[in-house]
Amino acid sequence: MESVVQVRSEKVQNLQQGPVILRTRLKVWFITICAIILIWTGVVQLWHLRLLSGFTRLTKLSVCVDETMQSLPPLLPPRNYTSNGFLQVSCNGGLTQMRAAICDMVTVARLLNLTLVVPQLDKSSFWADPSDFEDIFDVRHFIDSLRDEVLIIKRLPKKFGRRYGYHPLVMPPVSWSSDMYYLQQILPLFSKHKVINFNRTDTRLANNGIPLELQNFHALKFTPKIEALGRKLVHILQQRVPYPYLVEVGRLFPKGPRLKERITTLLNMSIYAFPWWKEKEIVSDEKRSQGLCPLTPEEAALVLQALSIEKDMQIYIASGDIYGSEQRLTALRTAFPKIVKKEMLLDPEELQQFQNHTSQMAALDFIVSTASNIFIPSYDGNMAKLVEGHRRYRGYKKTIQLDRKTLVRLLDLLQNRTLSWDESSAAVQQSHEERIGQPARQRVIEDKPKEEDYFYANPHECLV
Question: Where located (predicted)?
Answer without folding.
Answer: Membrane
